[in-house]
C-alpha cells in the first residue's frame, strides 16, 4: 500500500508570498487549473492501470478541499475530510511574508528558525505538534485502508513529515523538501507506520 500525498493548488496568497497557515484561502484561477490537471492526470493513470486509488483524504481547508474534490470526482471515489492533515497554525505570522517577519520579530524569528522543530510561532504551533497530529491521522487512515489512497494537504505538513521520515534536522526542510503546488509525493505505507512508531517512542 502507498500514500499519494499532494499539496493543494495555488492561491492568491501563494502568489503574493503571504503565509497562510490556518487562514482559509481558496484556490485562485491558476490553482483551479492545476487541480483540474492533477485530476486529469490521476484519472489517466487509473485508466492505464498504473494507479488504483480507493479514497481521497483531505485537509478541511478550502484550498486543499477544492483540490481534493476535483480529484475524487475525476476518479469517482469518496472524498473524506481529515482534520489532522490541516496546515500548520502559524499564529501571528499569518498574512505576513518572511521578509516582514524577519524584520519585525528579529530574535524571536531567529530562534525559531534555528530551533524550529520544538519552538512555537507566536500564537501558533510547533513542527513537533504538526508531526504528532499528522501521524495520528495517517495511522487512522492506515488502520482503515488496505489499498492506495490520496492525501491532499499542505506545504509545512509535507516538509515536516518528509524531514522526520528521513531523520534529518527540521532546519533543512525548506532546502530539501519544499513542495510545489499540486505536486505528488509518494510514500510507502510501511515507511509511515515505522516512522509513527518511532515518533511514539520519542525519537
Characterize the structure shown:
The chain has 203 residues and is of the alpha/beta class. The chain has a single domain, classed as 3-Layer(aba) Sandwich (Rossmann fold), CATH 3.40.50.1240. The chain is built from eight helices and five strands; from the N terminus they run βααβαβααβααβα. The protein has helices at 12-15, 29-47, 62-75, 98-114, 127-144, 155-165, 173-177, 189-200; strands spanning 2-7, 55-58, 79-81, 149-153, 184-188. It has a five-stranded mixed β-sheet. β2, α3 and β3 form a beta-alpha-beta unit. α2 (29-47) packs parallel to α3. The longest helix has 19 residues, at 29-47. The protein is globular.
How does the helix and strand content classify structurally?
A: alpha/beta
Query: Total strand count, please?
Result: 5
**Fraction of helical residues:** 40-55%
> Which series of helices and strands comes N to C?
EHHEHEHHEHHEH
What is the general shape? globular
Q: How many angstroms does the end-to-end distance come to?
A: 25 Å
What portion of residues belong to β-strands? 5-15%
Total helices: the number is 8
Rg from alpha-carbon coordinates? 17 Å
Give the averaged pLDDT, no decimals. Answer: 97
* Main sheet properties: 5 strands, mixed
In CATH, the architecture is: 3-Layer(aba) Sandwich
CATH topology: Rossmann fold
Low-confidence stretches: none
User: CATH superfamily assignment?
Assistant: Phosphoglycerate mutase-like
Domain count: 1
Strand line-up across the major sheet? 3-2-4-1-5
- The CATH class is Alpha Beta
Amino acid at each position: 500500500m502507498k500514500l499519494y500525498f499532494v499539496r493543494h493548488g495555488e492561491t492568491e496568497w501563494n502568489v503574493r508570498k503571504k503565509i497562510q497557515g490556518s487562514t482559509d484561502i481558496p484556490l485562485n484561477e491558476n490553482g483551479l487549473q492545476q487541480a483540474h490537471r492533477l485530476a486529469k492526470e490521476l484519472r489517466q493513470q487509473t485508466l492505464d492501470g498504473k494507479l488504483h486509488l480507493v479514497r481521497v483524504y483531505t485537509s478541511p481547508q478550502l484550498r486543499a478541499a477544492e483540490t481534493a474534490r476535483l480529484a475524487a470526482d475525476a476518479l469517482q471515489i469518496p472524498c473524506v475530510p481529515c482534520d489532522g492533515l490541516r496546515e500548520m497554525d502559524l499564529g501571528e505570522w499569518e498574512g505576513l511574508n518572511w521578509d516582514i517577519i524577519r524584520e519585525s520579530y528579529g530574535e524571536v524569528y531567529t530562534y525559531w528558525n534555528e530551533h524550529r522543530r520544538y519552538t512555537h510561532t507566536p500564537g501558533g504551533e510547533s513542527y513537533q505538534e504538526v508531526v504528532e497530529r499528522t501521524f495520528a491521522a495517517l495511522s487512522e487512515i492506515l488502520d482503515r485502508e488496505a489499498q492506495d489512497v490520496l492525501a491532499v494537504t499542505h506545504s509545512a505538513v509535507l516538509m515536516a513529515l518528509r524531514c522526520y521520515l528521513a531523520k534529518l534536522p527540521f532546519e533543512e526542510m525548506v532546502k530539501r523538501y519544499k513542495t510545489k503546488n499540486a505536486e505528488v509525493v509518494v510514500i510507502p505505507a510501511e515507511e509511515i507506520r515505522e516512522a509513527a512508531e518511532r515518533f511514539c517512542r520519542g525519537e
